[in-house]
Amino acid sequence: MGQTIRLTTAQALLKFLDNQYVEFEGREYKFVNGVYGIFGHGNVLGIGEALENMDDLSLRYYQGVNEQGTVHAAIAYAKQHNRLQIMACTSSIGPGALNMVTGAGTATVNRIPVLLLPGDTYADRQPDPVLQQVEMPYDYTITANDAFKAVSKYWDRIQRPEQLMEAALAAMRVLTDPAETGAVTLALPQDVQGEAYDYPVSFFRKRVHHIERLIPAPAAIKRAAELMKAKKRPLIIAGGGVHYSLATDALREFAETFHIPVSETQAGKSAMVWDHELCMGGVGTTGTSAANILAKKADLILAVGTRLADFPTASKTAFQNEDVDIITINVNRMDGFKMDSEPVLADAKLGLEELAKALQEAGYKSGYTREELVKLKEDWDQEVERLYTLQSDQGIVQTTALGVVNDFVQADDIIVCASGSLPGDLHRLWRSKGIKTYHMEYGFSCMGYEIAGAFGVKLGYPDREVYALVSDGSYLMLHSELLTSIQEGAKINVVMFDNGGFQCIKDLQMSRGSKEGFGNELRYRSAETQRLDGEYIQIDFAQMAAALGAKTFTVRSLDELPAALRAAREATTSTLIDIKIIPGTHSPGYESWWRVGVAETSKNPSVLEAQKRDRQYLEEHQKI
Predict the structure, then answer these.
(1) What HEC string does 518-534 produce?
(2) What confidence tens digit (pLDDT) does each residue in 365-416 have?
């Protein structure tokens, strides 16, 4: 029998994680770089004991304030590191664990690796029912942690110490798989965490997991090239996979070689700098007029590293040319076959390079004239300038404030956002000055991601200025990790757009027949109508953040914003700039649509008219 070491399950798990590495293109990365979480019964005497007393661990513990926030920070850390470095998150049982489920869904939707280690009830069941245990009379094996099954790419419950060895290796398989990665959940019963076992020393050896680029099949490249050679108006849609495969140079070179315009999803934005003449910006529901006009007329869509979700495809109505075909380059087979595409199952970088070789051999060039593309881009740039300079005697226009922030940030600064009206404004208007400086979580568009996400980015890039762009609604949902950033000395800058509530959803309501919007603004209840249509609630967000220790600024006129931005940049602790915005002054849609459910019967005739319009648009434009 080989050499063994006696450890508890929790000690063994952390020792194993501390020795996991990934290798990508000759460079080695330590894969798990910390444990982020909150202690309670169920993990404090297991994982907590191991972190406190194992002096040979290099894993740093980060104390969270909200379990959902810890997972968001871990997601952002991994996303900004192109999935080559991650963090683990631990929680107590019951509500502590369930708080992480939203984060698990966020990770899985976005194809971002995160390891979740929720505490669980007792495997031996002797003290049952314990505090925070959910009892199901039809199945006593079910606990709160079973909720993770719906949002995890791998799920396991460690009911005996020796089970850890198989489960840990399986977890690493999924976490390091570019095609299948997402949330991985290892549920840890609190008694098992403390149980000891004689583990083989070999289990804790340094393991290097090799992340290899998926090489495209020659036949797939040939089919894609044959299809593309006959097309004159191709459009590239660059998704997050372009970043994760480090394919930004390959994308730019491909576009330049064949003179093909590039549009971007939220995850793909900043794959090209904004002023490149072939960069047409965001595409789809929150896209630019330039990209969406090109999408409507395109006879071929080359979708690189994107899930082809409803926003970039405008609910499958963006591509209106009767002869349009779609080629996908994707490591994920499910994504590659969407919308009846011709798939090239491959790493984004290799797929672009191999397709480029085939097209060069054929002497391919798109049919666009330079003047046509320059005109589209110039027209859009003029629209951005208009929106960035709007003035009102009622206060600060949201798009104008965003323009001031955009002008101020430097090329290597990173912005983080996720929800509300800001993602639409940012996708359309934000001018990315540097590669991978735009960090948007829009697979889940999870409210509350922004501040925790900015903290996660800052942990990974401590020498960069990181800005969380957030509206008041999302700030109120989850801003607790602002305290963690102060605790850790990881300075972030929160730029808060106080626009009176959930304005993008109010806008959606009104576009589908609502007269004045309902239930989406932060207003007092009116004694007259008994609805939430009284005066706006005036909230001092700067005072709230200052109470946590942040340096804060309140901006009530546009002239005050540049000075606040400069002072925030010079500050040594986390900052918050509370900008008082005129509600509803976000940017509109351009040449696009989004499918949402509209009531088929209503006492409001405007709703019925909207339902009729949507049904007609869908019948005319939707594709498979």
Answers:
(1) CCCECECCCCCCCCCCC
(2) 999 999 999 999 999 999 999 999 999 999 999 999 999 999 999 999 999 9
Q: CATH number for 218-376: choose from 3.40.50.1220, 3.30.930.10, 3.40.30.80, 3.40.50.720.
A: 3.40.50.1220
What are the residue ranges spanned by the domains of the chain?
4-210, 218-376, 391-500+537-580
Is residue 176 scored above 80 in pLDDT?
yes
CA dist., res. 590 & res. 402, Å (int): 18
pLDDT band at 536 (very low <50, low <70, confident <90, very high): very high
Integer Rg of the chain from CA:
25
Q: State the burial class of residue 2 (Cβ atoms within 10 Å of its Cβ: 0-12, 13-18, 19+).
A: exposed
Question: Does residue 192 sit in helix, strand or coil?
Answer: helix
| 391-500+537-580, CATH topology level | Rossmann fold (3.40.50)
d(CA 135, CA 256): 61
pTM > 0.85: yes or no: yes
Tell me the H-state helices in 512-589: 541-548, 561-570
Which tokens belong to 202?
A: 């070999």
H helix runs in 195-347, sequence order: 218-229, 240-244, 248-258, 289-297, 333-336
**pLDDT in the model for residue 1:** 56
Two tokens at 25?
């293109």
Give the pLDDT confidence score for residue 622 in this predicted structure: 82
Comparing 4-210 with 391-500+537-580, is the CATH topology the same?
Answer: yes
Whole-angstrom distance, CA of residue 121 vs CA of residue 115: 19
Q: From the CB of residue 589, how many other CB atoms can be counted at a distance below 10 Å?
A: 18
CA 185 to chain centre: 19
**Domain spanning 4-210 has what CATH number?**
3.40.50.970
* Dist CA 342 CA 243 (whole Å): 22
3-state secondary structure of 437: coil
HSE toward the beta carbon, residue 623, CA cutoff 13 A: 20
Span of 71-85, 291-305, 481-495, 604-618 with lowest mean pLDDT = 604-618
Q: Which residues contact 23 (CB under 8 A, 6 or more apart)?
A: 29, 208, 209, 210, 211
